[in-house]
Amino acid sequence: MTAAVWPGAVGVALVVVTTLGIGSLGLRLSRTTSDFMVASRSVPAFTNAAAISGEYLSAASFLGAAGLLLTFGADMLWYPVGWTAGYLVMLALVAAPLRRSGAYTLPDFAEARLDSAQVRTICSVLVVAIGWLYLLPLFQGAGVTLGAALGLPTWVGPAGVASIVLVNVTGGGMRSITLVQAFQYWFKLTALLVPAMVMLAVWLDDGRPDAAALGRTDFPTDVLAWSDPLAAGGSQGLYLTYSLIAATFLGTMGLPHVVVRFYTNPDGRTARRSTLLVLTLLGLFYLIPPVYGALGRVYAPELAAAGESDLLVLLLPRLVVPGLGGDVLTGLVVAGAFAAFLSTSSGLAIAVAGVLGQDVTGRTWAGRRLGGVAAFRLGSVIAVVVPAAVALGEPSAGVATTVGLAFAMAASTFAPLLLLGIWWRPLTPAGAAAGLVTGGVGSGLAALVTLYLDGTAGWVGVLTARPALWSIPLATAVMVVVSLLTRQPEAPHVRRFMVRLHTPEALDLDRG
Amino acid sequence: MSPQPDEDGQAGQAGPAGQQPGLEGHPDDAVPPLPPRRRLGAWRRRHLGTDAEHATFRTLHTASLAAPALRAGLSRSSAEAAVRHLRALLDAPAMAVTDTAGLLAWDGAAYHHAQHVPAIVAATLEREGPRAFDRRDLRCTVRDCEIRSAVASPLVVEDRVVGTLVVFDVFAGAGLARTTEEVARWVSGQLELAELDSSRTRLMEAEVRALRAQISPHFIFNSLGAIASFVRTDPERARELLLEFADFTRYSFRKHGEFTTLAEELRSVEQYLLLEQARFGERLSVTLTIAPEVLPVAIPYLCLQPLVENAVRHGLEGQPEGGHIRISARDAGLDCVIEVDDDGAGEDPEHIARVLAGDHENDSVGMGNVDGRLRATYGEDFGLVVETARGAGTKVIVRVPKFAPGVLA
């Protein structure tokens, strides 16, 4: 890239300064007032919904979805559809009961439902595994983004983003403030929407050309084949598609940084309402990546062939809009992409650091025990450094593909736990533990095979690239069968907990 | 914690065990010990020492497995969790744990003999001591049933028989009778500890009641006096204050629930401060900085109100020009941090340390009580932190986890 790097640099610098600035100011952004009755005003559902969406929309959504659409065509619409529809499943089956359970994290839910320290430990391990699996592509993607936007060597990205996340997380503040995350959503939407609108206008002004009309005849431009869902691949393609649908529909509820946001809702009803609003906000956002994919097909088909499709969103504005306008739009998308890296990875890092701080660094080691804050800080160092180191060693992978593996793992472990835990009374701790281990080991091994033994061909490669369609039923079946085998008379606390999960708060009832 | 008496001890234990990962002994009834671990244990025991050491180890270990369940008190679920370990201790073919009415849990073979349990219990209670039963008491028509005799020993808690331990065997000799009696005595000891736990819980509840009663007299007189002074000059304000007063007392005197949400507790604190401001006017100024994210956190009922009351009292004490009180609640990852800060006379740190150590001969009973309840609920890491010195104001810091097992508003 020979074009000027200043727009990207300015965008990144602004995002970093704002993020760290807000992080250090911390509480001041939450309402400070001597006015009475401020305490009874909780976070409105709409603000909370924007915050959930803001933290949820990672670089995989911002960059990866458009890139996949460019390369593989309409099949890949299942990614944005699935990422959104995950909240539909949550809305119907999980959101309100989960909020009423009083759990803050996924291990909390397991402990409250099953009253078992062992299952809690397994859940903690899985939170760390899923968090790292999700952080890895984000750090890798940051390397690619900074490399392309600022012309920096690839290692700078993971190292830089990891350090900023670390400072941000240990400094406290930023992520926990709902308003900041809500702002993140609107910022990412603007950063993606404005360039898309401008480019669409340019394309219309050009007389709606296709690639051939622009003289790009060196790349296949069979638009009909490209826009045909489930085009190629036969039974393997069908399996891949359904597996992707299963992973994204069920994986969302098992992501550690999503669940903690539901705690902010005052009750189950508001939790449902914010989930509904999240669906709307995400639906709005995901309308835009296909625009980039389609315009990329016209203006930058060579990116797909060169395997640089993740860069499409960053490079397209300059290719479509020449001159200063293109520079400004580039600055905007680079800033948006960087914000996407920071917000999601901060959320994940906090979730992982919380678990590590409580269950690993907070324990007594060699007779010494760290206090709460010190344990959390050490936990966040481990939480960030491990995936960053792996990302430095293994700098290339499709962002959306690896994120898909994290979703598959969440879907094969926490999804059965939540669904059965909420809706099936006979679930026992032994059953839950067996199912979690089965799903975790199965999807984890598949992820390792995919990441480190690439080029596995045939059905083995297909089954390991998208494990969800076999690992979710397997984990669920193990959970059910082991629960039935270890069935015991129902403990009174389970009955009380179920009543609490499923009765609306407005109902006057002794919940003790 | 739940209001049912037989659950209290268990829930109370789960709290600290959940908070402090280092503590062993989380009562986990549902997972049976896995066979491979036993085999490993057997291998290790062969290399552990003499046979006597071995036997001691095995006995104490088996007893320790039964202990957590029994520490929850005598109930169906605790008896079910403990009975198989107790049977392993005696190596008998079958064993039953009963209360004074009948069977609670059975372990081992020959379940058809459970029909004899009520008669055995009645006979044992009558005698108030260990008793043996032979084949005449245990008639059965089941083929291959080897059970011919039984030994029952009462479980005694504070001189009161609460249940029995019944061991079934082919032949009940003096040895079995004596070991049964010893095991019953050990179980009784554990049940007495459980009783201690539950009386500690009851004491906490009594303290909350005392706290409620303590709020009333002065505050009620003063508030009503302040409201009365507005009745002629500003009837609308008087009306509003009266409504606040009604709300505040309703919250303070509510009967059910050990926990509430931070939002509700803060609302009560705000009402309290409104009433105090009506009384003190310009002399009392207040700043609230509340992060809305932590409003749903569940906290022990009335755990902020006493702290704010202290702050008002100390903040205004000897300060004719008035005082300022700052209340903040913020999100800190897995925890929520609440601070109550006044710029008043301050306090001798030694004195506060004595209050927190449980010295009740002070005027700051509220603080010691809040501290005790926070520790009992969340574990020893979550007591009050007080920063103060004479003439430097007082800052009380409450740190509560967003989730703790059994803590639900």
Task: Give an overview in words.
The complex is a heterodimer of chains A (512) and B (409). Chain A has a domain of 347 residues: Sodium/glucose cotransporter (Up-down Bundle), CATH 1.20.1730.10. Chain A contains 22 helices and 3 strands. In chain A, helix 2 packs across helix 8 and helix 18 runs antiparallel to helix 19. Chain B has 409 residues and is an alpha+beta fold. Chain B has 2 domains: 194 residues, GAF domain (Beta-Lactamase); 168 residues, Heat Shock Protein 90 (2-Layer Sandwich). Chain B contains 11 helices and 12 strands. In chain B, strand 1 and strand 2 form a beta hairpin. In chain B, helix 3 runs antiparallel to helix 4. The longest helix of chain B is centred in the middle third of the chain and has 60 residues. At the A-B interface, strand 1, helix 5, helix 6, helix 16 and helix 19 of A face helix 1, helix 8, strand 7 and strand 9 of B. Strand 1 of chain A pairs antiparallel with strand 7 of chain B.
Gist?
The complex is a heterodimer of chains A (512) and B (409). With 512 residues, chain A is mainly alpha-helical. Chain A has helices at residues 6-25, 45-56, 59-72, 78-100, 106-114, 117-150, 156-171, 178-205, 223-226, 234-251, 256-262, 268-285, 288-299, 302-305, 312-320, 324-359, 372-393, 399-423, 429-452, 458-465, 468-485, 492-502; strands at residues 32-33, 364-365, 368-369.
